[in-house]
Structure formats: structure tokens, C-alpha cells
Specification:
mainly alpha
Length: about 325
């Protein structure tokens, strides 16, 4: 029993090292990393995940760049091989973090342009939202805001621009003029199609609203776009009627949508209050029966609490 507990504890430790490869590369020396690699101690259901993590670890060592590139190529090949296999399977053992690690290694080894092209090479565009956001979060956690800006400037698609801006908005990191100008250009060129009511896509939807509102706000601030243009862009993404669960703290993620409504109201130079974000009576009646009307006071109270939480904690 003790042996089993020790083995489980050891596996969790190696998984933590694999999940945070940039820190592992900073902390562990090359010899220790090589010993762990040789013993194949990094746990994973997908070989490419280990290759990607190891490429990041080795990329942090100035004298191991060649080995890091070899691991990066192996990770990319593994991901390409996974795609046709995934088409024939209902399961998936590739996580957004795995893809983000490959992009991070590409960024450190080949630059921001390489990382951007790797991420933008996948379809549908929304598939890269979470990996790109994780990549941005890692760079910001390391204090590398300049690299985030360069990644945003290197973007050629709306999806990557939105993902970088969404994570910047979540952490309150401002955009530079060059970054805002490039992001605004990609948003004007291509609209990201997504169903904001699809529960399975709530993370991607939240990022889209965060990113679009952040880009719009900074584009107006730098006079890259006029307020009217930003309002028009936001209206392309916002639903015609606020959803019933907009402020429900137990429902899907809606903080990004709240931010978008707030930015839109600010650009119109209008105050934003609770009634502005409540569905109309006609909409409530269309969506349900008398049960909805009985719970209207409860929904309003719940929404009010959610609005406060979204404003202060999002």
C-alpha cells in the first residue's frame, strides 16, 4: 500500500513538471532533465504531449537548442498524426495545454512569427482559442509582455488576435498601439462564427467577447477606429437580446459578454444599468410559460449578484 502511495505521489510530481515545462527548464539542470527523459518518467496518454513539454524544457537551456528543435519537430509530427486518427475516434487525449506547449517551444526557438503560423494553421479557427490563451497566460506570468505584443502583431487571423487580447483583458494588461492596430485590422477582415448559446463552447465564446471588447476599446483609445466603428463591430457579436442567464453565477460563463455590453455603452456615452441588460417581457414570454414569469424576481436578483461578481471578479 505504501509503495502504491509513493508511486502515485511520484507520478503526480512528474506530471506537475510536465505541465509547467518552462519552470521545469528554469529550475532543473540539463543532467536531471536528461535522466527523467531517459527513464520516461513523464506521464502522458499522448506521446506528443511529452515531446512538446520536453522541447520547452530544453529551449530554456541556451546550450540545448538543437535537442529542443528535435523534440519540437517530433511533437509537431505527433500532432499531425493525431488529426486523422481523431477523425476515426470519439475520444481525444490531446489537451489545449499540449498544443500551447508546442507553440511556446516554437516561440522560444524560432520567434513569435513561427508560433503564430503554427497556431493559425489549424481549423476551425476557434480550435486555437484556448491554446493561444494559455500561451499568452504563460508569457504574461513570466513577465514577458513584449513577447505577447510581438505575438499579437504577428497575428494574421481574428482568432489569434482575439485569444491574445482576451487573456490580456483578463489580467488587465494594456495593448500597445501597434498591437491594437494589427488586432483591429484582423477583426475587420474576418468575423469569428460561433453560437453564443452553445454550452460546450462557453469558454471559447467568453474569450471572443473579452477579446473583441478589449481590442475595440484600445482601438478607439489610440484613434485607430472611430467609436461608431467599434460599436458596429461589437453589435456583430452581441446577441440582439441579452440572454436570460447573463447574470446567473451558476450558469455558463457570461463575464465576457458583460464586458462587451459595458464597452458598447461606454462608447455610446450612455449609462449601463440592470434594466438595460434584462430580456424584454416579450422575449421572456416567448421563451417559456408562466413558470418563467413566477421566477422573474428571483432571476433579477440572481442577475444583479452576477453583474456585481462579473464586474469585480472577471
Amino acid at each position: 500500500m505504501r509503495a502504491g502511495v509513493a508511486a502515485a505521489s511520484s507520478e503526480r510530481g512528474y506530471k506537475l513538471l510536465c505541465d509547467e515545462p518552462d519552470l521545469t527548464g528554469d529550475i532543473l539542470d540539463s543532467a536531471t532533465i536528461d535522466e527523467i527523459r531517459a527513464a520516461r518518467m513523464f506521464p502522458s496518454d499522448w506521446p506528443g504531449a511529452v515531446f512538446g513539454a520536453e522541447s520547452v524544457m530544453l529551449a530554456m537551456k541556451t546550450d540545448r537548442q538543437g535537442d529542443a528543435r528535435n523534440r519540437l519537430r517530433a511533437a509537431v509530427h505527433a500532432l499531425h498524426a493525431w488529426v486523422p486518427a481523431q477523425a476515426e475516434s470519439n475520444g481525444s487525449n490531446v489537451e489545449p495545454k499540449n498544443v500551447a506547449n508546442i507553440a511556446l517551444a516554437a516561440l522560444y526557438l524560432h520567434g513569435e512569427q513561427s508560433a503564430a503560423r503554427f497556431l493559425e494553421g489549424w481549423r476551425p479557427p476557434r480550435w486555437i482559442l484556448e491554446p493561444a490563451a494559455l500561451l499568452t497566460a504563460t508569457l504574461l506570468a513570466r513577465g514577458e509582455q513584449d513577447r505577447v505584443m510581438q505575438l499579437g502583431v504577428a497575428s494574421q487571423t481574428a482568432a489569434l488576435s482575439v485569444a491574445v487580447a482576451a487573456e490580456s483583458q483578463r489580467l488587465g494588461v494594456p495593448m500597445t498601439r501597434e498591437h491594437a492596430q494589427r488586432a483591429w485590422q484582423t477583426l475587420r477582415e474576418k468575423h469569428i462564427d460561433i453560437d453564443s448559446n452553445e454550452y460546450a463552447l462557453q469558454n471559447a465564446t467568453d474569450m471572443i467577447f473579452r477579446g473583441v471588447s478589449w481590442i475595440s476599446a484600445w482601438a478607439v483609445r489610440y484613434a485607430v477606429a472611430a467609436p461608431e466603428e467599434a460599436i458596429s463591430l461589437l453589435n456583430r457579436y452581441l446577441p440582439t437580446e441579452p440572454p436570460n442567464d447573463l447574470g446567473d453565477v451558476h450558469g455558463r460563463k457570461r463575464a465576457g459578454m458583460l464586458h462587451a455590453y459595458a464597452v458598447c455603452a461606454h462608447l455610446r456615452e450612455q449609462p449601463l444599468s440592470l434594466p438595460d441588460l434584462q430580456p424584454t417581457n416579450d422575449t421572456v414570454e416567448r421563451r417559456g410559460d408562466g413558470k418563467n414569469q413566477k421566477n422573474s424576481k428571483h432571476n433579477s436578483s440572481s442577475f444583479s449578484r452576477g453583474l456585481t461578481n462579473g464586474r469585480t471578479g472577471a
